[in-house]
Amino acid sequence: GDSVTQMEGPVTLSEEAFLTINCTYTATGYPSLFWYVQYPGEGLQLLLKATKADDKGSNKGFEATYRKETTSFHLEKGSVQVSDSAVYFCALRGGSQGNLIFGKGTKLSVKP
Amino acid sequence: GAVVSQHPSRVICKSGTSVKIECRSLDFQATTMFWYRQFPKQSLMLMATSNEGSKATYEQGVEKDKFLINHASLTLSTLTVTSAHPEDSSFYICSASRGQGRPLHFGNGTRLTVT
Description:
The complex is a heterodimer of chains A (112) and B (115). With 112 residues, chain A is mostly beta strands. Helix content of chain A is 0%, strand content 51%.
């Protein structure tokens, strides 16, 4: 079945460092891909998405490109801030009901 | 934007009691709602999919008699954890969609603690 694999954390960076969180997927068909962010004590928020190959999703300085050839959707940010500390989930959407399938999440801690 | 309200945000109950969690779409009609469970430091696992007016579809391994889902209207779905036990303690999150292919909107989740 469909699945998402993302790099395990935790990831600890200094402020202004470059961030990459790897995400690869396995799916039949052409799923939509998402990154969600969960701040401490809160629910999920959609960070960005891409619906077809070569699409680039971007938001709040984060970017991810839908790479069909490598089945990847890596999350990047050029300069992280302390406020970016959160858990990031890669997800795909497919299936007959359109539910999301999540990776295990990567906890990011940014130190000042 | 579309808003999904989930209530309560936190609940503590005694073992053996039942707890109801509500998920409401405030400004749109949700034909489909999904219920997820998140274990500590783990990902969200889909528990069930509910479509308005029909029975919920449960994922493998989820006890439908323990986790009762009702989607009686286009704006409300409820998850009832029956005869709760400490192992049911978890973070439960709902999401709602206008339909297949439409964006998913998440509630803020419910932290259930069973003592």
